[in-house]
Amino acid sequence: MRRRPGGRRKVCRFCADKTLKVDYKDVRTLGTFVTEGGKIVPSRVTGNCARHQRALTVAIKRARILALLPFSTLGV
Prior knowledge:
By secondary structure, the protein is mainly alpha-helical. The protein has a domain at 13-65: CATH 4.10.640.10. Helix content is 38%, strand content 0%. It has 4 helices and no strands. The longest helix is centred in the C-terminal third of the chain and has 16 residues, at 50-65.
């Protein structure tokens, strides 16, 4: 018998807490979903549902264009 890898099922933070919204101006919340190098963390790692992951991706890209978030920090 082989066990499936992994532990507890991840839950979407935005579905669990209805007061939390995806907003491009909220840099602190968006920063938790971006790696140190500037990449967007995938939903299989964060546990976000598809709807909120798409909204999060758009918000991160908007924040990058408005220079609220960096595109990358590798060259600095």
